[in-house]
């Protein structure tokens, strides 16, 4: 994961080659077309976001899918980026690949999964989620200022899951001074802790 690295489609092709005991490396920079065709021809690729069709830090994913002769691509959501937004689907269809674009609940879930990208592309602003625990009578702390564990274990676990997906966790200086929060994701698989920000 990261800028300039293989997108999900190419990573999936590489994984398919490894599972098929192919020695060829499948990367954006050099895909062994013959090996990919032998393994992927006629297969279906499922993607959460429309395959890219532009040259950036990596070549277009549509090129890799077409060269590997995938028969079908199922897309959960279109990429809102102006340079893609339906063009990836169009290129695949022009190459004879059957493309299905999800609708309904599957499409809604995929859009939510990509909220950060969608917000950034459309507005230039980050996607922000606001979380707080509150009592039934509308308080976030007791009269003594104690605010630990208003919520239950299930909601705290969910918060840590959300944190593991976030780029940053932000609190006000008052909360930081009163509670000394760690602002980390705990009890979940988290490859990179979010940036801790105090406002």
Keyword list:
single chain; 199 residues; alpha/beta; 3-stranded parallel beta sheet; two-stranded parallel sheet; 37% helix
Describe the structure.
The chain is of the alpha/beta class. The protein contains eight helices and five strands, in the order ααβαβαβαααβαβ. Helix 3 links the parallel strand 1 and strand 2. About 4% of the residues have low confidence.
Number of strands: 5
* Overall radius of gyration: 22 Å
Strand content: 5-15%
Q: Widest sheet: strand order? A: 1-2-3
Mean of the pLDDT scores?
83
Low-confidence stretches: 23-29
Provide the succession of SSEs. Answer: HHEHEHEHHHEHE
Shape: elongated
From the helix content, strand content and strand pairing, which structural class follows?
Answer: alpha/beta
Largest sheet: 3 strands, parallel
How helix-rich are the residues, as a percent range? 25-40%
- Report the end-to-end length measured between terminal Cα atoms: 29 Å
Number of helical stretches of at least 4 residues:
8
List the helices and strands and how they pair.
Elements: H1 8-19, H2 33-40, E1 44-47, H3 61-67, E2 72-75, H4 87-94, E3 98-101, H5 104-113, H6 115-123, H7 153-165, E4 168-171, H8 173-179, E5 195-198
Helix pairs in contact: 1-2
Provide a short characterization of the protein structure.
It contains 8 helices and 5 strands. It has helices at 8-19, 33-40, 61-67, 87-94, 104-113, 115-123, 153-165, 173-179, and strands at residues 44-47, 72-75, 98-101, 168-171, 195-198.
